[in-house]
Structures are given as structure tokens and as C-alpha cells.
Amino acid sequence: MRIVVLTGSGVSAESGVATFRDRNGVWAKYDWRRAATPEGFAADPAFVHAFYNERRRALPAVRPNAAHYALAKLEKELAARGGSLTLVTQNVDDLHERAGSKNLIHMHGELMKARCGACYSVHPWKDELSIETRCPVCDHAGAMRPHVVWFGEIPMALDAIYEAVTSADLFAAIGTSGAVYPAAGLVGEARAMNIPCTELNLEPSENAWLFTDSRYGPATKIVPRWVEETLNGA
Ligand code: APR
């Protein structure tokens, strides 16, 4: 059985990472136009660096939760049975990999990496970024940016994602509001191929009507249960 799972910020919420569009979400405190667009970065790079520096600084103390671990187990068990799990995440945190997921696509990039806007080299990055940071490869100063996808930019690895989704036996979306495309459009791509689609979320997402099955509740409760059910049926 080939399964594709799309995760959003709801899967990390119980680890203490803020979601985006909930009442206390990131975009209730920050203007996404200033913090997460190429135009915002061009206008005030110091503000954008401070926004991501704060998140990068907080991440090492955050721990994966039962939902992340259940998805790592699903990958391992499916592989042992000749199947596969492709985990596509919109999250820029590293909690899926720390829980043990391997076949993982970060479609919105990674907080713990930085990229040079001059030579496009990508680097693991634990430290603060600033407008003075030099690129370790080309030594250009002032062009380093977080290796994340901003609004108006094209998400990463879209070809691999569409290929995996349209050839899957099952698609599931976990902890995402379905507000941001193209991620939110993946359920439609799967449905167009007659692939069953399961939604696991705290509440119905904006795309809830497109799913053929849905489970509502906190990810740490409903994801491990769904993984066991799926493995029992696989
Ligand atoms: N368990 C399951 N779902 C949860 C939980 C939880 N404990 N807590 C919140 N949720 C759900 C919310 O009900 C909501 O539907 O997670 C969803 C989070 O939605 P958003 O805040 O919109 O986050 P996400 O879908 O990941 O956003 C997509 O938007 O700002 C951009 O690039 C950013 O990747 C992000 C993208």
C-alpha cells in the first residue's frame, strides 16, 4: 500500500509550536505581508530575520509528539510490508525527522537551513541570520535568507509531490486548514484519480467536503489510532 500524508501546523501544535490561522496563531500576531513575503524581506530584512531567528532559537527545545512518532512508525511498517509512506509537510520545523521519518518532503522549506540569494547554496543553519551574515560559499554579505517558502513563491519539490499523490492508494491530510495552495489542492488531485482521502484535524478544514473519510480531534489522539487502524487494514 502506498500512502501519501500531508501535514500542517496542527500536527506540531501539541508540541508547543503555534499554528498560523487559529485564534492565537502566528498570523494573528504578525502581518504575513511583512514577515513572509519576498516584498516584506526586501523592505525590511532585519524584521524578517528577527521573526525567523526567534523561531529557530525556540525549536531545539521543542519535542516531537505522539502524532509525529506514529507517522514514523507508519513509514517503517509499510516499508517492511513492501509499501511506502511519502510524508509531505508544510511545516518548517524538524519534528518529523526527529521522530524518525525518512521519506519526507518539506514543501515549504526548513527553518534549520539558510540559503544564499546570490549563489543559491543551501546550508544547515543553527545560528541567527542578519543583514550582515556572509555566505559560507561565495562570501557575499547580506544575501542570506531562511530556506523557507514565502507567500508568492513556488513550493519545493512539486513534481515529486504530484507524482506521489496521483499514484497513491490513500491520501491523508493532517492538521492543516486547507487555506494555502498548492498544498490545499492536493486532495483534489487525489480525488480526481479516485484515490480515497482521509482528513485528520481538530475541526473540519476549508476542504472538508472533498475528503471521503474524516476524524476530528487532537492529532496526538487521532493520528496514532488512525495509524493502527491503517496498519491493521493494510
Ligand atoms: N490537532 C490537530 N489539528 C489541529 C490541532 C491539533 N492539536 N491544533 C490545531 N489544529 C488544526 C486547526 O484546526 C487548523 O485547521 O490545524 C490547522 C492549522 O491550520 P493553519 O494555522 O492554517 O496552518 P497550516 O494549514 O499548516 O498553514 C499552511 O500557511 O502560513 C502558511 O506557510 C505557512 O505552511 C503554512 C501554511
Automatic annotation (TrEMBL):
This is NAD-dependent protein deacylase. It catalyses: N(6)-succinyl-L-lysyl-[protein] + NAD(+) + H2O = 2''-O-succinyl-ADP-D-ribose + nicotinamide + L-lysyl-[protein]; N(6)-acetyl-L-lysyl-[protein] + NAD(+) + H2O = 2''-O-acetyl-ADP-D-ribose + nicotinamide + L-lysyl-[protein]. NAD(+) binds at Q90, N91, V92, D93, G175, T176, S177, N201, L202, E203, A219. Binds 1 zinc ion per subunit. The keyword Ribosomal protein does not apply. Belongs to the sirtuin family. Class III subfamily. Its EC number is 2.3.1.286. It is found in: Cytoplasm. GO terms for molecular function: histone deacetylase activity, NAD-dependent; NAD+ binding; protein-malonyllysine demalonylase activity; protein-succinyllysine desuccinylase activity; zinc ion binding. Zn(2+) binds at C116, C119, C135, C138. Its main location: cytoplasm. The keyword Cytoplasm applies. Residues 1-234 form the Deacetylase sirtuin-type domain. The gene is cobB. 2 residues (Tyr-52 and Arg-55) present in a large hydrophobic pocket are probably involved in substrate specificity. They are important for desuccinylation activity, but dispensable for deacetylation activity. The active site is at H108. Its cofactor is Zn(2+). SUPFAM superfamilies: DHS-like NAD/FAD-binding domain. GO terms for cellular component: cytoplasm. NAD-dependent lysine deacetylase and desuccinylase that specifically removes acetyl and succinyl groups on target proteins. Modulates the activities of several proteins which are inactive in their acylated form.
